[in-house]
Design goal:
230 residues, mainly alpha, 74% helix, 0% strand
């Protein structure tokens, strides 16, 4: 028990930045879902079993629009396709984690991946428990934020128009930060150009899947050139 508490004490500080973001975004998700007529319990269940931040916001629109399982499948696959690469890169770190491995895989979000890749547990701290607790704490923050947002939305009546713009704002900030951090801007420019072209061709209601598929195709075809900076 003592080594578990030491691992928790070591893991918690690394998750504080994630906590501030997850509580806010989780609350926004809970409020948005409640504004569509869903009980706050659904926000909790979605955050427990789906636990895919951006996809949960997309799922709100899927739940409130005409049922289209093929569209739902492809949009989920494309939005979360980056996790395929995360998973491959974590094969070695997760090796030997035993019973924790399934949860470590399911709980691997962008922020958790970032912490696990860039952080080594302090000396004397069990690495498996450290990774597990980082993952668990981050999900607790997201579930808590979702529950609070759902409750706030059910108890208080206010105009929620525009709250779904939170994901647009989030991705805009991520785009700007990555633009500043990276010296090579070809992938970002490719994404913008392809998205605009698909928007003009397919219209605002149908451009997401074609644009994301085309972006993946273009980046894959010209990966070597991009990596070499050509």
């Amino acid at each position: 028990m003592r080594h578990k508490f030491k691992a928790l004490k070591a893991a918690f500080p690394y998750t504080i930045p994630v906590m501030t973001g997850y509580l806010f975004l989780g609350a926004a998700f809970g409020i948005l879902l409640n504004s569509k007529g869903y009980h706050f319990g659904w926000a909790v269940l979605m955050s427990l079993f789906i636990y895919a931040g951006s996809m949960q916001f997309v799922a709100v629109n899927l739940l409130t629009s005409a049922f289209n399982p093929v569209y739902a499948f492809f949009i989920t696959l494309i939005v979360n396709a980056r996790h395929l690469f995360y998973g491959i890169s974590m094969l070695k770190p997760f090796k030997g984690t035993g019973k924790f491995k399934p949860y470590l895989i399911v709980g691997l979000t962008d922020e958790t991946y970032s912490i696990l890749c860039s952080t080594e547990p302090p000396e004397g701290i069990d690495k498996t428990w450290f990774m597990f607790l980082v993952t668990l704490l981050n999900q607790i923050y997201w579930v808590t934020g979702s529950a609070l947002g759902g409750l706030i939305g059910s108890l208080l009546t206010f105009n929620t128009t525009g709250i779904d713009f939170v994901m647009t704002a989030l991705f805009t900030v991520i785009f700007i930060n990555q633009w500043k951090a990276e010296k090579k801007h070809i992938p970002a420019i490719t994404g913008v150009v392809v998205s605009v072209l698909c928007l003009l061709i397919f219209g605002p209601d149908n451009f997401i899947i074609p644009s994301m598929a085309l972006i993946v195709l273009v980046l894959t075809m010209f990966r070597k050139n991009i990596e070499e900076g050509i």
